[in-house]
Amino acid sequence: MAKKILFCATVDYHFKAFHLPTMKWFKEQGWEVHVAASGNISLPFTDLKYNIPIQRSPFNLGNIQAYKELKTIIAENQYTIVHCHTPLGGVLARLASTNSRKAGAKVIYTAHGFHFCKGAPLLNWIIYYPIEKLLARLTDCLITINTEDYSLAVDHQFKAARIDLVNGVGVDTTRFQPITEKQKKERRLKLGFKQDDFLLFYAGEFNKNKNQKLLIKAMANLKDELPKARLLLAGEGTLLAECEKLAERLGVSSQVEFLGFRKDIDQILPACDVAVGSSFREGLPVNIMEAMACGLPVVASDNRGHRELVKVGWNGFLIKDMDVESFQHSLKKIYLNRKMGKSLGENGRQYIQLKFNKESVFNQLAMVYKDFMNDKEVRRLWEAH
Question: Could you tell me which residue ranges the Glycosyl transferase family domain spans (predicted)?
C-alpha cells in the first residue's frame, strides 16, 4: 500500500502558488498525495482533495466544523506525514492530528512568518504567540523561513521535536532572470511604457499589511523631481479602490499603474528599474526574491522578511519607520546613479542564486522529509493503534 501525505492550508491556492514541486516529488517517490483546504481549484499531483471550510479568522465558529472534518480525514487515511501551512491551517491540522500522531503520524508545520515578531502589534503577541508555543508541542518539525523566526522559536524554547530553517519556497532563476538592454527596450514598448520611464514595481494583495498607500504618497512627493517615474502595482484586494482614489487625490493617477491580477510577472519584472516593498510584516517575500532574481535593486520597508533579503548598500536599501522621505531619497539615489543601481541588482541576483534558488531550497526541504519518510515504525504503530 502506498504511503500517504496530507498537505493542509487555509486555502487551496496556497499549494498552487508555492508547493506543486513538492507534491510532484512525493508522487515520483510513489506516495499518495492528499490536500485539505478551503476552495475548489484543481491541483495537479493530487490523488484526493478535500474542500474543508477553514476560515481565516481564528474566532470564526466555522473552524469547529473544519476541525471535525480534518480529524476524521486524518484518522481514516493513516497518513505517514501531515504537513500543514498558514496560521489557521497549522492550528487545525495539528489539533486534528493529535491522536494520529500518537499512532505514529509525523506532523510538520511551516510557519510562513509568525504573526508575532519584532515590531508586531501587542495584540498579535497576545493572540498568536501562546497558540504557536502551545501547538509546538504537537509538532514533530517546525520549519521557519527566516532567521528571526528561527531564533525566536529557539530562544523562547518552543517544544517542537525539532526546529529547522528552510529558505522559503525558492525562486526559479531560469524563469526570473535579467534581460539585455535591447530586450528591455523592446519589452517596455510591448508593455506600453516608454524607454526612458523609471519603472518601480510591487506585486501584492491590496490590504493593510502590504501598505501600498505609502508608495503612492512617495510618488506624489517625487512627481516633480522624477517626472519619468512610474509605479506599477500588480494585485487585487479590498483596499484597491481606496488606493486608486488616493492616487487620484494626490494627482499621480498618470504615474501609478494599477495592473490588476497578472500571470506575466516574469515578463514585467525584467523590464523594470527598481523593486519596491512597503509591507509592515513579511516572512520571506517571494515578490522581492523574484525581483532580485531579475537583477533589480530593492527599496523596501525594514521588516524581518526584507532584512533577510536586502543588505543595505549592497543590493538595495531598507526604510525604517515607514518614512516616506527616506523612500524618496533612496529612489532618487538609484535614479541619479544608474551604474550603482545596476551593481545593486547584480548583487541581488547573485544572492538569490546562492541561497534562494528553487533547487537549493527544495534540497533543504527534502532533507527534512527524508528523516520522516521511513514508515516501518509508523505502520507498526498504526496497526497496534
Answer: 184-350
The alpha carbon of 381 is separated from its chain's Cα centroid by a whole number of angstroms, namely: 36
What's the pTM?
0.89
User: Position of cell 499621480?
Assistant: 252
What local confidence, expressed as pLDDT, does residue 376 receive?
A: 53
Distances (CA, A) of 225 to 42, 228, 229, 329: 48, 9, 9, 11
Residue 176 within a domain = no
Do 80 and 224 sit in the same domain of this protein?
no
pLDDT tens per residue, range 269-297:
999 999 999 999 999 999 999 999 999 99
> Do both 200 and 153 map to the same domain?
no
Q: Which 3 state secondary structure label does DSSP give 33?
A: strand
Cell of 363: 534540497
Where residue 119 falls among pLDDT bands split at 50, 70, 90? confident
Range of the domain at 300: 181-356
Sheet architecture: strand order including 229-234: 256-260, 229-234, 198-203, 274-277, 298-301, 316-319
Per residue in 222-254, is it b (16+ CB within 10 Å) or e — as a string? bbeebeebbbbbbbebebbeebbebbeebebee
Contact call for residues 198 and 229 (beta carbons, < 8 A): yes
Instruction: Select from 219, 215, 193 the least CA-distant residue to 206.
Output: 215
Distance CA 333, CA 329 (A): 6
What are the pLDDT digits (tens) for 65-74? 999 999 999 9
The separation between CA 172 and the C-alpha centre of its own chain, rounded to angstroms, equals 14
Asked if residue 381 has pLDDT above 50, the reply is no
The reply to whether 164 and 287 lie within a common domain is: no
Distance CA 373, CA 385 (A): 19
| Domain assignment of residue 332, yes or no | yes
Query: What's the confidence (pLDDT) of residue 295?
Result: 97
Q: Mean pLDDT of all residues in the chain?
A: 92
CATH number at residue 291: 3.40.50.2000
